Amino acid sequence: MAETLRRVLTRGGAVWSGENTPAAGPPLLLLGTPGSGKTALLFAAALEAAGEGQGPVLFLTRSPLQSMPRGAGTTLDPMRLQKIRFQYPPSTQELFRLLCSAHEAPGPAPSLLLLDGLEEYLAEDPEPQEAAYLIALLLDTAAHFSHRLGPGRDCGLMVALQTQEEADSGDVLHLALLQRYFPAQCWLQPDAPGPGEHGLRACLEPGGLGPRTEWWVTFRSDGEMMIAPWPTQAGDPSSGKGSSSGGQP
Amino acid sequence: MAVVLPAVVEELLSEMAAAVQESARIPDEYLLSLKFLFGSSATQALDLVDRQSITLISSPSGRRVYQVLGSSGKTYTCLASCHYCSCPAFAFSVLRKSDSILCKHLLAVYLSQVMRTCQQLSVSDKQLTDILLMEKKQEA
């Protein structure tokens, strides 16, 4: 799944044109404090994965989105939106039921499984053993979808978890458990690289041997998501690999 | 899925699978490696395999789940897709303390795959849902 997010970030939110069928990459955990743009990035990943010849996408969240996430902006393609199936399990019990019976659902298997707000489900059922089974079922459901998609195609998995500024011991335990099952992680931090600028810093650790990469994500007033590589630490911000996402090939 | 065992375990299991195909038994050097990697769990897992305690349950959808009948008589559910077992040892030693890679039940599942000695059980899609959900209810 890390690969889908990397494509979202390296293409600067530009829609993916579908030249080849991309690999989904390892399951990815998206971490950030409240309001750090997790839902916006999940939604961008959903649109990315619902491109030509791909999809459908299954988007799980506890309650319906109240508005279009930031960044959905002007690039919203109704054909892609139609391929995103939203489901709203209202309780942990219902989420278990949905995952345990995912193989009974008719229709084509999703190529991407997304879950927003994992912390809400974990808070309801805080036993570590329960949390472990819930996470294992998420992975098993994605593995089953991959099996149904056939050889050479994988169903990606991306889960967003809200972190607190000051984690308590329960959060730390959950996080250790999650990191075991999600080798790839993306941390989102509200940040401002210059005066008067507001945005967030996205740091992707793809797991395994891949390099850590950082981006700077801002939202324009028209809702468009702008993504640029994070300026390198070495002083001069303009020495970053690219100045704006729009010019990336 | 990308959640993998440490490379050394993957390698050992695939070498064992090749050896079993050739000679229909696990050569001694692999048994020693197992013992080295997993300690007493290796013997206990082999014992579970010998007693045919592992059942692969599958439904027409293609979804699969393993059940292992533990030495205590209790049945545990294992998800081989992501290395999960419902036993207390997995929750404690593997997930909580990270001082083991696998519990004996999961190791038994992988060994039974290598030795092709699982019992097979076909159930309906609905029954498979109930089996997965029952696991959740047992924990509660």
Report strand order across the widest sheet of chain A.
3-2-4-5-1-6-7-8-9
**What's the number of structural domains of chain B?**
1
Which word captures the global form of chain B?
globular
User: pLDDT under 50 segments of chain B (min length 5)?
Assistant: none
Overall SS class of chain A: alpha/beta
Distance separating the two termini of chain A: 21 Å
Number of helices of chain A: 7
What about the largest sheet of chain A?
A: 9 strands, mixed
Please provide the ordered H/E string of secondary-structure elements of chain B: HHHEEEEHHEH
Shape of chain A: globular
Cα(first) to Cα(last) distance of chain B is 28 Å
Detailed description of the structure:
The complex is a heterodimer of chains A (249) and B (140). Chain A has 249 residues and is an alpha/beta fold. Chain A is built from seven helices and nine strands. Chain A has helices at 2-10, 38-49, 78-82, 92-100, 118-124, 128-149, 169-181, and strands at residues 28-32, 57-60, 84-87, 112-115, 156-162, 184-191, 199-205, 213-219, 225-229. Chain A has a nine-stranded mixed beta sheet with strand order 3-2-4-5-1-6-7-8-9, with helices on both faces. In chain A, strand 6 (184-191) and strand 7 (199-205) form a beta hairpin. The two termini of chain A are 21 Å apart. Residues 12-21 and 234-249 of chain A have low confidence and may be disordered. The two termini of chain B are 28 Å apart. Chain B has a five-stranded mixed beta sheet. The mean pLDDT of chain B is 88. Chain B has helices at 7-23, 28-38, 40-50, 88-96, 104-115, 125-139; strands at residues 54-58, 64-69, 75-79, 84-85, 119-122. Helices cover 54% and strands 16% of the residues of chain B. In chain B, strand 3 and strand 4 form a beta hairpin. Chain B is an alpha+beta fold and 140 residues long. Chain B has one domain (7-118). Chain B has six helices and five strands. Chain A: One of its GO terms (molecular function) is single-stranded DNA binding. Chain A: InterPro entries: P-loop_NTPase. Chain A: Residues 229-249 are annotated as: Disordered. Chain A: This is SWIM-type zinc finger 7 associated protein 1. Chain B: It comes from Pan troglodytes (Chimpanzee).
